[in-house]
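Hello,

I think I submitted the flavin-adenine dinucleotide job twice by accident. Can you confirm which output corresponds to this input? Input:
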Amino acid sequence: MKPRVAVVGAGISGMSTAYALLQKNYAVTIYAKEFSPHITSNRAAAFWFPYHVRNDKRGIAWALKSYTFFRETMKDSTSGISMCRLIKAAKPGANDEDTWTAFMPDGSFRKLQDNELLNGYAKAFEAFVPLIETQLFLPWLQNYLTARGVEFKQEVISDLQQLATTFDAVVNCSGLGSRTLCNDESIIAVRGQVNLLEPGFPDHIFLDNQTPAYLVPRKDATIVGGTYEENTYEAVTVAEDLEAILQKAYAIFPELKSRKVIGSWAGLRPFRQAVRLEKEDNIIHNYGHGGSGYTLSFGCAEEAAGLVSGE
Ligand SMILES: Cc1cc2nc3c(=O)[nH]c(=O)nc-3n(C[C@H](O)[C@H](O)[C@H](O)COP(=O)(O)OP(=O)(O)OC[C@H]3O[C@@H](n4cnc5c(N)ncnc54)[C@H](O)[C@@H]3O)c2cc1C
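Support: Only one job matched these inputs. Its output is below.
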């Protein structure tokens, strides 16, 4: 019989971990309080970019593995993944270090010339990164796992040790849930609010971390973000904040003013100073990916599966 592993959490961390465990021939059961589309992983923008993980050098290998995974998986046109042009821009005087470039695959980015800059910007890079349309990719991944025998069970887990008595190993991918499940107060919620505009403009991702402003062209909407609100635990939008986000975006791209606002959402990034990816007896933790859950996902998942098998 195959060794049995329980994964707690059905977000991008839990499902990517289940994917990596399947490659190692484990029998996997996922336990989750909630599933897509009712989880943080559906609230992501979600493009590949090392956001607030730049000081954790482990992140470089995790991010590069994920980049490769997404670039390969986009060959399946139903996966919801594509490669997208990203413009990462900074205004004059912005406290903007270029440490993120250490995470980039060779040849995937370049600094723009002065004559290529948008009005009001002092510096910018062009990069090519995976864009993961969560509304398509999360069901795709769940179907992929189900078709290969992964079981999904809706259940709140309150004791990892107890669960570990009935499995060969348990991988905890409960995101912000680890605040109570592991009594880990070092994981905090960082709320992000975004507007959704009619799709079609722009044709690339735009990112200005200092303003902050970002635009993400999905098929169903252009995401216009956003906020970064530390220690804010209510996943709700605030009308004044949404309006301020829009005004910042209009100042950069006046063309957006003619686009209808078709929705909005808020999500809670599960932020920790360092991702917790370690083994405690037969319990492996894989949580605290903050604003980079997709960027780190498949790299962290491979390492978590390696900890299960003792590599
Ligand atoms: C506005 C916004 C924009 C973002 N943009 C990007 C981006 O562009 N790129 C990027 O890489 N990342 C982005 N992120 C971050 C990304 O969304 C998160 O890092 C990622 O979704 C975290 O995934 P997770 O699986 O760890 O957690 P979640 O998606 O929160 O999943 C946790 C799972 O654990 C379950 N759970 C929790 N507690 C228990 C329990 N006790 N028992 C059973 N189940 C439990 C939940 O029900 C859920 O299934 C963004 C986030 C936000 C909010």
